[in-house]
Write a structure and sequence with these properties.
With 89 residues, the chain is an all-alpha fold. It is built from 2 helices and no strands.
Length: 89
């Protein structure tokens, strides 16, 4: 059989980022908020986790990966909220 040459019509789909659909229901397993749902934390606590824990997490345990993905999703939500408030007021 012959080889199939690549063409624009059959190029691979762009890479998509995998984030939890419901980041608010991810349970925090580190720090003073251990056991709390991410969505129950005040925005300042979520921001601290994003700022301090997220860049430092090294473990690739499933709960670390899930929390990291949830924090990435939360970062986007907080960023959009901050931009909205900045433009609104």
């Amino acid at each position: 059989m012959g080889m199939i040459s690549p063409c624009k019509e059959h190029s691979p789909a762009p890479e998509t980022r995998r984030v939890p659909l419901d980041w608010q229901n991810v349970r925090v397993h580190v720090g003073r908020h251990r056991g709390a749902l991410l969505g129950d934390l005040p925005p300042s606590s979520v921001r601290r986790l994003i700022e301090y824990w997220l860049p430092e997490y090294r473990d690739k345990a499933a709960e670390d990966v899930l929390l990291a993905e949830a924090l990435e999703a939360a970062r986007e939500v907080l960023k959009e909220a901050d931009e909205y408030l900045k433009n609104e007021y």
